[in-house]
Design goal:
Elements (H helix, E strand, L loop, with lengths): L14 H56 L4 E7 L2 E3 L2 E4 L3 E7 L5 E7 L2 E2 L6 E4 L4 E6 L3 E6 L7 E6 L1
Parallel strand pairs: 1-4, 3-10
Antiparallel strand pairs: 1-2, 4-8, 5-6, 5-7, 5-9, 9-10
């Protein structure tokens, strides 16, 4: 018998495609984590902006109240929403400040007058852009009719005692 020297090849078969597959899976997993982290960071940034905006609004309100208190008056708010003053009638003291806040998407005015017309010698006539506000201090006792020059159906009364 003849003896044959055979050497067995013991190198693994095709290790490179398996390594590439594992590497690709790792890259995809990292990409997914990064996307989630980015979305989470955006959410956190958005929440931070919202919180900062709310805090700024609260500070402005507190400052307005503090200023009104220093002047002896108090601050009250009237909302301009759904093309109406809310509330339609308020009573304040001489020296009080009323903040008119426009919650509509259209501009309004806060004008002394009725049915969309300014009173003769109107003591106040302020335009209020959408999302903005204006403050009016009532220094004299009396009843003040308030209207919007742009929307004649918007009317209210401020009683000052």
């Amino acid at each position: 018998m003849r003896s044959t020297d055979r050497t067995l090849d013991r190198t693994p078969s095709r290790p490179i495609p398996i390594a590439i597959s594992l590497l690709a899976a790792l890259v995809l997993a990292l990409a997914a984590c990064t996307a989630q982290t980015g979305a989470s960071a955006e959410s956190t940034a958005s929440a931070d902006e919202s919180t900062a905006s709310t805090e700024a609004s609260m500070e402005e309100s507190e400052e307005a109240s503090a200023e009104a208190s220093e002047d002896g008056g108090q601050a009250m708010q009237v909302d301009l929403v759904n093309f109406a003053f809310d509330p339609t009638e308020i009573t304040v003291s001489v020296g009080d400040t009323v903040r008119f806040v426009n919650g509509d998407t259209a501009a309004h005015t806060v004008t002394e007058g009725t049915n969309g017309s300014a009173a003769d010698d109107a003591r106040f006539d302020e335009q209020v852009a959408a999302g903005e506000s204006v403050e009016i201090t009532f220094d004299e006792a009396g009843d003040y009719d308030v209207t919007c020059l742009f929307h004649a159906n918007m009317n209210m009364v401020v009683h000052v005692e």
